[in-house]
């Protein structure tokens, strides 16, 4: 079992076999390293025994799960391009054909498909944020304030 859910932790003893966690925030795309690691783990586990089965989940089982399932479909060659993977997931997972709907999540499926198709090597480059410059973001009058989260 591969868990995408950052909100909950799975109890190892409840499932036969390994539980591996690759948590990332709901409605967000995963880190590219997480996509690649999960795909390698899934393929390795499936290659170990033809009877092995993989379950990938998150809180609702659509967005985060869909990104990772689509990536695995591409990595294992079940699907040949990103749109095929996204459409296959949507038709198998939902009744309305709406699988992975968050634009950034869909984009990451496309990025990963492009990487696999072109044989590019992923080399992350650190980004250093040195300055924030804000214009008029309001005042604390009437209880209005700005709150920022950086990841």
From TrEMBL:
* One Gene Ontology MF term: phosphatidylinositol-3,4,5-trisphosphate 3-phosphatase activity
Extract the SUPFAM superfamilies matched here: (Phosphotyrosine protein) phosphatases II
Keywords associated with the record: Hydrolase
Q: Which PROSITE patterns match?
A: PPASE_TENSIN (PS51181), TYR_PHOSPHATASE_2 (PS50056)
Where is each Phosphatase tensin-type domain found? Answer: 1-119
User: Per the record, what is one GO cellular component?
Assistant: plasma membrane
Q: Name one GO biological process term.
A: phosphatidylinositol dephosphorylation
Residue ranges occupied by any Tyrosine specific protein phosphatases domain in the UniProt entry: 33-93
Report the coiled-coil segments.
Answer: none
- Name it: Uncharacterized protein
UniProt organism field: Protopolystoma xenopodis
Q: Does the keyword Hydrolase apply?
A: yes
């Amino acid at each position: 079992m591969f868990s995408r859910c950052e909100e909950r932790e799975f109890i190892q003893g409840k499932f036969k076999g390994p539980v591996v966690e690759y948590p990332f925030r709901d409605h967000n795309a995963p880190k590219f390293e997480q996509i690649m690691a999960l795909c390698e783990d899934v393929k390795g586990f499936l290659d170990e025994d033809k009877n092995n089965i993989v379950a990938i989940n998150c809180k609702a089982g659509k967005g985060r799960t869909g990104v990772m399932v689509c990536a695995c479909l591409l990595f294992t060659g079940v699907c040949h391009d990103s749109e095929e993977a996204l459409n296959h997931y949507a038709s198998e997972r939902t009744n309305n054909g709406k699988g992975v709907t968050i634009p950034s999540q869909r984009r990451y499926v496309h990025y990963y498909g492009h990487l696999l198709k072109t044989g590019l090597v992923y080399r992350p480059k650190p980004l250093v944020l040195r300055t924030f410059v804000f214009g008029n973001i309001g005042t604390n009058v009437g209880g209005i304030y700005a709150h920022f989260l950086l990841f």
